[in-house]
Each structure stands twice: as structure tokens, then as C-alpha cells.
Write a structure and sequence with these properties.
197 residues, 4-stranded mixed β-sheet, alpha+beta, 17% strand
């Protein structure tokens, strides 16, 4: 079925492997992902430490960063007006469960926003995408000291559901309403929104 996500391994094991991978690449994440995403971007504890440092440097008072398991959020139902995830949903061990959790913590009428890579279908962006993720991203991975992590990241982008598939997941798994998506940058990224009922 289009849009379903069945982890190929135990969810807890998969989550731990992904978390360890992001811990390893945290210090180089911004640079290499800027290269991998052609500048279109800008979850682990070390990444939150970097986010805190950036917020302090930019005098972003009142911003609080917390680490939590996206599949079991430590917040009461209906607590937030909005929940966002950027380039992260594809890394969830169980995407359906993660979508349900994000919807659970939204108040009725609250908005979920998901920003993710998309596989473009029309040239020239489809050609650029294939060259970038099939040829250049593996080279960047090899120079990163952690080629396995960047091979995983490229594969996670390639196998993520397309815009319609993700919209169906948001409806089916989380019961969100008014689901819309906007394809940007020639089909390289998509923003999905949905409203909690």
C-alpha cells in the first residue's frame, strides 16, 4: 500500500541506530547537509547542544530545546498550537506512530507542518536530483569520516513516500484534516500541512 512504512528491523533497534548515527555526524551535519541539500536546509542531543549555542549567539531569548522520543512525546494531549518537523520524519522508526504522536499533542485546530525532501519528476530538477544523490552525495559521504551515515541519509531520501503518499499517511495514520502540500524548489522539497480535529 502506498505510503505505509514497515521498518525492516525492530523499531527500538532502528531508532537507536539512527540516533547513534546523528550523534556521530552532529559536528559536521550543517556543512555536509548544506552541500547535500544544495543549500535548501537551514535530533540528537549533540545537535540540540549546537542549536542552543546558535540560539545564544543570535540572542534568541526564550527558545527552549528539549530532547524527546518523537514516537512517545512527553507532553499532554492538546498542548501545542503547532508542531513542525523538518527533514526528520523520514528518520522515524515508525512514521505512522510518529505522525499520531505529533497530532496527539496538537490542540483541536492546531497545525502540523512537515518539511521533507521529495524526488522531482521533471527535468532539469529530476536530473540534478539523480546526479546529486546518486553520484555526489556518496562522494561527500566518503570524505565525511562516516560514509555509512551519509549512505543512509541518501537512501532515506530516495525511499521516502512522494507528496501524495505522505498526505495519505497524515490522513490515515494521524486523522489530520485539511491536508495540503506545496512542492517547492522544482520538486526537491515539499511542505505538508494538516489540521488536528
Amino acid at each position: 500500500m502506498a505510503g505505509t512504512t514497515k521498518p525492516s528491523r525492530d523499531s527500538a533497534q532502528f531508532a537507536e541506530q539512527v540516533n547513534r548515527m546523528f550523534d556521530r555526524v552532529a559536528a559536521r551535519y550543517d556543512l555536509l547537509n548544506s552541500l547535500m541539500s544544495a543549500g535548501l536546509h537551514h535530533f540528537s542531543k549533540p545537535m540540540l547542544d549546537l542549536a542552543r549555542e546558535k540560539a545564544e549567539a543570535r540572542s534568541a531569548a526564550g527558545v527552549r530545546f528539549e530532547w524527546a522520543d518523537a514516537l512517545s512525546l512527553p507532553y499532554d494531549a492538546g498542548r501545542f498550537d503547532a508542531v513542525t518537523v523538518g527533514f526528520g520524519l523520514r528518520n522515524f522508526a515508525d512514521r505512522d506512530r510518529g505522525l499520531r504522536e505529533m497530532a496527539r499533542v496538537l490542540r483541536p485546530g492546531g497545525k502540523l507542518v512537515v518539511l521533507e525532501f521529495t524526488r522531482p519528476t521533471r527535468p532539469p530538477f529530476s536530473t540534478f536530483y539523480s546526479l546529486w544523490f546518486d553520484r555526489f552525495a556518496p562522494i561527500l559521504g566518503r570524505i565525511s569520516e562516516d560514509p555509512e551515515a551519509y549512505a543512509y541519509l541518501a537512501e532515506s531520501v530516495r525511499t521516502f513516500p512522494g507528496p501524495r503518499g505522505l498526505a495519505e499517511m497524515m490522513d490515515r495514520a494521524a486523522g489530520l484534516e485539511g491536508i495540503r502540500f506545496t512542492i517547492l524548489a522544482g520538486g526537491i522539497v515539499t511542505i505538508h500541512t494538516g489540521i488536528a480535529g
